[in-house]
Specification:
The complex is a heterodimer.
Chain A: E1 3-4, H1 14-38, H2 46-67, H3 88-112, H4 115-141, H5 154-174, H6 178-207, H7 211-221, H8 223-247, H9 255-282
Helix pairs in contact in A: 1-2, 1-4, 1-5, 1-9, 2-3, 3-4, 4-5, 5-6, 5-9, 6-7, 6-8, 6-9, 7-8, 7-9, 8-9
Chain B: H1 3-7, E1 21-26, H2 35-44, E2 57-62, E3 65-70, H3 82-86, E4 92-94, E5 101-103, H4 113-117, E6 124-125, E7 139-140, H5 146-149, H6 156-160, E8 166-170, H7 177-184, E9 200-203, H8 207-210, H9 219-222, H10 224-233
Parallel strand pairs in B: 1-9
Antiparallel strand pairs in B: 1-8, 2-3, 4-5, 6-7
Classes of the chains: A mainly alpha, B alpha+beta.
């Protein structure tokens, strides 16, 4: 009656957010596995992190392929005649493949006990793992017509999220190992704080933007999406774990405090990825 | 410098040896009959729930001075198309002669990256089941009726438009009707700030529709004063 608008479906659904979450954790775990060669306190995590990282790569890859409407054509992304390097997805496909190959070689090196080759492959795997959150960030930021996504700090945000969520899973894996927990506490604290700083920057520029940015800000901070983004993402996922880790003095932290912080960081990073993926798309569904 | 010349690619703008097709939509002439939408559906067997072209409208003003503003929409066949840049397998591409942005259905992997990239929402995913056409589960969009234009016909929506609101032609030809309309009328393009250099030009487009409004999620309240006035006037 008042108006007729055509409702457009969002392009990327929640499967993509789960993929971002999984790929962030596996990248973070790869950093930890390499870190164990440099920081002796992380040594107990070396094999665990490498194995879980490969398993998560399988889960993430399956999610990504299943999300395509032509799943079997995922091979087109690796066809040299079809590759289109202006798209971050083309780089991402190569990065994931290279990471998968290196991860398997790394695990084989770990199993064979070849320390020299293991350290080198850990470095290469970690470098390729760094490319994963960077490409997922670019995957969003190249869409310059979407507020929030078009922020140039998006790859930085995804790297910080990857370190935070990887360290959180590491903290859960480390169990009662005090020396590992101490190192992981630092990682979690600083990376979560970095996520917070980047989010403040993004929210600030979004709220001062034009009408599209204003609408995206409104969606991000109100209603159900507001609960997910502000409630679960910022308050539960950043403010609460940072407060927990800071307020309880170092050395007197019980294992439980760190575990709770790790779980909160994981919940928050999943919520943040979902909200950042979905909110800027919702804004455009009625345009 | 006209809007068309400013908005076009430097390689083709004003070059009569290179064709660059464009559409001019004169919204003052659009009566909202949706015949263009139906013609397009018939031409391509476009399934239910998705459209290559659509005609949204908004009621503006306050009763009794209200009017219905139409804004026919379609792919803008940009000179700098973000969908082409973002496709990981080059399933979408630009035809140099004419500037058509087309889709290779057999190559599309269905990642929907092009849909996310398009500022105009011109792309959509074809459903998995269709009655007559075997092309399914890939991204589709308006082709500017490439198959008709290459046979010297105008697009189906232009052919059927009863108000002659849609005009199609080569903007590099100074004698074409689109060149004349663009030269003689102030025109707008959608979301020019995106730098896509779109080739669908609007005459008399309403800002209520071309821009994002903060009232997008409060549609019911928008018409309440008009509805009350109508009821009051007719004693309903």
């Amino acid at each position: 009656m008042g108006e007729y608008v055509w409702f457009h479906d969002v392009s990327w659904h929640s499967a993509y957010a789960i993929y971002f979450f999984v790929i962030g954790i596996l990248a973070g775990l790869s950093f930890l596995s390499y870190g164990s060669w440099l920081t002796p306190a992380l040594r107990p995590l070396r094999e665990k992190a490498a194995y879980i990282s490969v398993v998560l790569l399988g889960v993430g890859g399956a999610l990504l392929i299943a999300d395509l409407s032509q799943p079997l054509r995922f091979l087109n992304t690796l066809n040299p005649f079809y590759m289109h390097f202006t798209s971050p997805l083309a780089w991402g496909a190569l990065n994931i493949t290279a990471f998968g190959i290196c991860s398997v070689l790394y695990i084989l090196a770990l199993r064979s006990g070849n320390e020299k080759r293991g350290k080198l492959l850990a470095l290469v795997t970690a470098a390729l793992a760094l490319g994963l959150p960077i490409y997922t960030g670019f995957d969003l930021s190249v869409h310059q017509s979407r507020p929030v996504w078009n922020s140039p700090v998006m790859p930085v945000l995804f790297v910080a999220l990857a370190i935070a969520s990887g360290s959180a899973v590491g903290a859960l894996l480390a169990g009662a190992n005090e020396s590992a927990q101490k190192v992981l506490r630092e990682y979690m604290l600083w990376s979560t704080a970095a996520v917070g700083v980047v989010l403040i920057a993004i929210l600030g520029t979004t709220s001062y933007g034009g009408s599209a940015e204003g609408l995206a800000f409104q969606i991000l901070t109100s209603g159900t999406m507001g609960l997910i983004f502000v409630g679960f993402g910022i308050l539960a996922g950043i403010a609460a774990p940072v407060a927990l880790m800071l307020l309880v003095p170092v050395g007197k932290q019980q294992q439980g405090v760190l575990m709770i912080s790790a779980v909160l960081i994981l919940v928050g990073s999943a919520a943040l990825r979902y909200a950042i993926l979905m909110a800027p798309q919702q804004m455009q569904t009625l345009f | 410098m006209s809007e068309a010349t400013k908005a076009s690619s430097p390689a083709t703008a004003g070059n009569p040896r290179k064709r660059r097709f464009a559409m001019v939509v004169d919204t003052r002439r659009c009566i909202g009959c949706m015949a263009c939408q139906v013609a397009c559906k018939a031409e391509y067997d476009t399934p239910l729930g998705v459209n290559r072209t659509w005609v949204p409208y908004k009621v503006t003003g306050k009763y009794p001075n209200v009017s219905r503003k139409f804004l026919p929409r379609l792919c803008n066949h940009c000179d700098n198309p973000p969908c082409v840049r973002n496709c990981p397998v080059e399933a979408t591409f630009v035809v140099e002669d004419g500037g058509f942005v087309l889709q290779r259905y057999e190559r599309c992997i269905g990642c929907r990256s092009c849909m996310a990239a398009c500022p105009y929402n011109a792309r959509f995913m074809l459903p998995s089941h269709r009655t007559y056409t075997p092309i399914t589960n890939v991204v589709d969009k308006c082709t500017f009726c490439f198959h008709r234009v290459t046979q010297n016909l105008v697009p189906a929506c232009v052919q059927t438009c009863i108000g002659r609101a849609r005009v199609f032609g080569d903007i590099n030809d100074p004698n074409s009707e689109v060149s004349y309309l663009i030269a003689k009328n102030p025109t707008q393009v959608l979301r020019p700030e995106q730098g896509t250099r779109p080739h669908v030009f609007y005459i008399g487009a309403d800002r209520n529709q071309t821009e994002f409004g903060r009232d997008a999620y409060q549609k019911i309240e928008v018409m309440e004063p008009q509805r009350s006035a109508f009821k009051l006037h007719f004693n309903i």
